[in-house]
Amino acid sequence: MNHQEKALELFKNKFQCSQAVFAAFAAELGVDETTALKISSGFGGGMCCGEVCGAVAGALMAIGLKYGHAQVHDSESKNSTNQKVMEMVSQFKSVNGSIICRELLGYDLTDKRELAVINEKNLFTVFCPKMVASAVDIAETII
């Protein structure tokens, strides 16, 4: 199963977008699936408030896991990681128009009326898998 298939399967099975994307890469980066799902569980729905898309956040976690710095003075790794993060964000914006959940959805999930519309239109089921797939596809070119 490739990264996209894994991510979409997890998302279809009711894991959040952030969890689906991060967990799709985690095992090959040395993190077991359960740990990956737990780490990324608070980032779906733009941190539950419509901010940065959870699929993007999951991809950024995977990028950080692979390339991130763990030593204060490792400016080379820090700069390299920051470049990869900016590349991920730039490509996602270019393809999808934004990295902000509420802008992508066209509705604010923190507003009860708008959340009702999101649910009525099944956007989490119909639209969000496209964002998961997009984030995975872009992350694959970086990771």
From TrEMBL:
Pfam families: C_GCAxxG_C_C. InterPro entries: CGCAxxGCC_motif, Multihaem_cyt_sf. It comes from the Bacteria. This is C_GCAxxG_C_C family protein.
